[in-house]
Write a structure and sequence with these properties.
This protein is an alpha/beta fold. It contains eight helices and nine strands.
């Protein structure tokens, strides 16, 4: 609610009742859900109650979330951490993953952390259009935040070079070449902020050798950001550079809030 307040936006609470709930219980479940939402709103001491709506639907959660977001032309879909996170359905996809894959809005997963401000933000960058879209969304969503841009690179075939000295020399040279290329790409990524009409103070740029998922996990642990931003194309779930058991663990049990942004 604080996010909507900070941006002067309307807020819709959507609760979806499973179609498997017996018809004679749906009204009772809907009433209980509305009461619980009203209690949350009251606890938050919202000044402008007229800017908040409550909507109860019956059906498949992901489908209703996506269709409702499109109907109201939502700028952002927000998931609260609850028991549904990490629970797989028959298609081995959570509602969150379905919304990311088929939805059209950025998706924010909110944890139970006490802070309601995003003062420190980390972006996982691979210099693709997905990273640029993630940067654009970050600058729009949390302008003025303290920003870390994290990129991981790997030295290919280093383990197969004959001889330790040859392998070390090759890796040292290749790592230097890669870092030079990464520095250039990082400059382009940061300068792209101007195309979005945003001024970006020099962010910290963290470039580390290693498997991208492992580096991302380590930096989340080291930096302790309030918000982690990931870019994705959405066609097959999360971006290939960030997919895997570690990323899935972050999204199912995130150490901080996570914003997932699609390029299209």
């Amino acid at each position: 609610m604080s996010i909507a307040s900070q941006h002067g936006a309307r807020l819709l609470f959507l609760h979806v009742i499973s179609e498997h709930v017996p018809a004679n219980l749906r009204e009772r479940v809907a009433h209980a859900a509305r009461q619980e939402i009203e209690a949350v709103i009251a606890t938050a001491c919202v000044v402008d109650r007229q800017s908040i709506d409550i909507q109860i639907e019956i059906g498949q959660s992901a489908e209703k979330i996506i269709s409702t977001a499109d109907q109201i032309n939502a700028d952002l879909i927000v998931f609260g951490m609850h028991q549904d996170a990490g629970i797989e359905d028959d298609n081995s996809e959570t509602n969150f993953e379905k919304v990311v894959r088929f939805g059209h809005q950025p998706v924010l997963v909110v944890t139970d952390q006490e802070s309601d401000r995003y003062d420190k933000v980390m972006i996982g960058a691979d210099f693709s259009v997905y990273s640029r879209r993630a940067l654009q969304a970050t600058l729009s969503f949390v302008p003025g935040a303290d920003l870390d841009i994290v990129h991981a690179f790997q030295v290919p075939f280093s383990a197969f070079m004959p001889g330790s000295e040859t392998r070390d020399a090759f890796q040292e040279q290749h790592e230097a070449d890669l870092r030079e290329m990464v520095d250039r790409e990082m400059e382009l990524l940061v300068s792209s902020a101007a195309h979005y009409g945003c001024h970006l103070e020099a962010p910290r740029r963290i470039v580390k050798q290693g498997e991208p998922v492992a580096v991302l996990r380590d930096e989340v642990s080291n930096l302790r950001p309030d918000l982690l931003v990931l870019g994705t194309h959405g066609r097959v779930g999360l971006s290939h550079m960030l997919i895997g058991s570690v990323a899935e663990a972050i999204l199912n049990q995130p150490p901080c809030d996570v914003l997932v942004v699609k390029a299209w």
